[in-house]
Automatic annotation (TrEMBL):
Name listed for the protein in its UniProt record: MSP domain-containing protein
One Pfam short name: Motile_Sperm
Native species: Caenorhabditis japonica
Coiled coil: none
Every MSP domain range: 2-98
Length: 98
């Protein structure tokens, strides 16, 4: 199970801006992901939840609104997706209960 981000780091000015990244699944299983931020007031991530097909990729956009400069963190949680899952957010809630 492997999920990588390309580019692997996001640098957005404190004045605001956006950055596009590609989540790449190099494995043979469908993956499910959720992206978390240490600063939800100034960052918007689209999509927050999703699936990445085997040997596939998914584009994400990270947007920062203007705010005080500081170091923030984005974390991507991922796991093998349930075979019958069609709604990423609902599937993640089920996985968390296990």
């Amino acid at each position: 199970m492997s999920l990588t981000a390309d580019p692997p780091a996001c640098t957005v000015p404190a004045a605001g801006g956006s950055s596009t990244h590609k989540l790449v699944n190099a494995g043979a299983d469908k993956l499910i992901f959720k992206i978390k931020s240490s600063n939800n007031n100034e960052y918007r991530i689209t999509p927050v939840f999703g699936f990445v097909d085997p040997s596939g990729s998914k584009d994400i956009v990270i947007t920062r609104t203007a705010g005080a400069p500081k170091e923030d963190k984005l974390v991507i949680h991922f796991a093998n997706a349930p075979a019958d899952a069609t709604d990423a957010q609902a599937a993640l809630l089920l996985l968390l209960r296990l």
